[in-house]
TrEMBL record:
Transmembrane segments: 45-66, 78-101, 113-132, 153-171, 209-231, 243-265, 285-308
Keywords annotated in UniProt: Cell membrane, G-protein coupled receptor, Membrane, Receptor, Transducer, Transmembrane, Transmembrane helix
Name of the protein this chain belongs to: G-protein coupled receptors family 1 profile domain-containing protein
Organism encoding this protein: Chloebia gouldiae
SUPFAM superfamilies from the UniProt entry: Family A G protein-coupled receptor-like
Record-level Gene Ontology MF annotations: C-C chemokine binding; C-C chemokine receptor activity
Subcellular location, record wording: Cell membrane
SMART domains tied to this protein: 7TM_GPCR_Srsx
A matching Pfam family: 7tm_1
Chain ranges of the G-protein coupled receptors family 1 profile domain: 57-305
Cited PANTHER family: C-C CHEMOKINE RECEPTOR TYPE 4, CELL ADHESION MOLECULE
Membrane topology: Multi-pass membrane protein
Length: 358
């Protein structure tokens, strides 16, 4: 290992979701063993919960899309890609769950791949939520333009662009991640060449800009214009559409804004702006809580975009009724499914001509 790499490891704080690395890099005068013990007892259970719920929910979304929706619109394409993004995100969680209670035992190749998959799922999921906001904007505010723009073909093209951007933004994880022994502990984290401070600054700002700032600007514009349009149109479903829009936007920023704030504060700590040991510990605890909060968002996406939509509830009922294995469970929970299938909520408004609403 080069001297520059060794020097960078001595000063590195947690990067993205590697808060547990700093427990071993922290100066002895600022012990973080309590933070590590808290993570080992707290995170694996929540990682497992997010994994199971996110896996089941997003697989149901994909089954419904292929069996009943058949990807007939831009909305369907985005929903499919969003579910795939969330699946990528949650499939990496068992590895990080084991890492929090023991150490990294999967070697450098898996260290690179799992870190890369995690970040690709993170970026692509947020980008597809952003695209769905644009899709709703076109359907409601630019209804005439949407007739030409909101096609399956355009949905496939923009989805391809999103995946390319997400893959490109995650390349540093694939290149710089390494598994190595440090202080008798095998870890998985990036070893940046050259100026480590520059790379640390770049990686944090990349997450903040691509993961929060740009989506915030675009979604705020889209939803403000949608609400303005709905307020001025007379439609029986206007109130439901407005409520749905607020749910989408508020949930997204509630679950991801705290995480982005914490990693920015950790960057200030890394740069020496924050020097207090107790504040450093508090940031580590805050990172754990806000990261889990963000992870739960991928479980809520099926609820937000599907389970609250009247058409999906009808398709879900059909899926559980017609398929042998789901049908077995349907007999056990039939009343519950029927109850949800009878409630209605969707983005659809009669004035938009958006016939593919859920």
């Amino acid at each position: 290992m080069s001297s520059s790499s060794t020097e960078s490891l001595e000063v590195e704080l947690s990067t993205f979701y590697d808060y547990y690395d700093s427990y071993y890099d922290a100066p002895k005068l600022c012990s973080k063993e309590g933070v590590r013990r808290f993570a080992a007892s707290f995170l694996p259970v929540l990682y497992s919960l997010v994994f199971l719920v996110g896996l089941a929910g997003n697989i149901l979304v994909i089954l419904v899309l292929f069996k009943y929706k058949r990807l007939k619109s831009m909305t369907d394409v985005y929903l499919l890609n969003l579910a795939i993004s969330d699946l990528l995100f949650v499939l990496s969680l068992p590895f990080w769950s084991y890492f929090t209670v023991d150490q990294w035992v999967f070697g450098t190749p898996w260290c690179k791949i799992i870190s890369w998959i995690y970040l690709v799922g993170f970026y692509s999921g947020i980008f597809f939520i952003m695209l769905m906001s644009i899709d709703r904007y076109l359907a409601i505010v630019r209804a005439v333009l949407s007739l030409k723009a909101r096609t399956t073909f355009h949905g496939l093209i923009t989805s391809l662009v999103v995946w390319l951007v997400a893959l490109s933004a995650s390349v540093p994880e694939l290149v710089f991640r390494e598994s190595f022994n440090e202080h008798n502990f095998t870890t998985c984290k990036p070893i940046f060449p050259g100026n480590f401070t520059t790379w640390k600054l770049f990686s944090t700002l990349e997450v903040n800009v691509l993961g929060l700032l740009i989506p915030f600007i675009i979604m705020t514009f889209c939803y403000s214009m949608i609400i303005k349009t709905l307020v001025h149109c007379r439609n029986d479903k206007k109130n439901k559409a407005v409520k749905m829009i607020f749910v989408v936007m508020i949930v997204f920023f509630f679950f991801w804004t705290p995480y982005n704030i914490v990693i920015f504060l950790q960057l200030l700590e890394f740069m020496g702006v924050i020097k207090d040991c107790q504040v450093s510990r508090s940031l580590d605890y805050a990172f754990q809580v806000t990261e889990i909060l963000g992870l739960f968002h991928c479980c809520l996406n099926p609820v937000i975009y599907f389970f609250m939509g009247e058409k999906f509830k009808k398709y879900l009922k059909m899926l559980f009724k017609n398929w042998q294995l789901p049908g077995y469970f349907c007999k056990w929970c039939g009343a519950h499914i029927t109850y949800h299938a009878e409630s209605t909520s969707s983005f659809h408004t009669q004035s938009t001509g958006d016939q593919d609403a859920l």
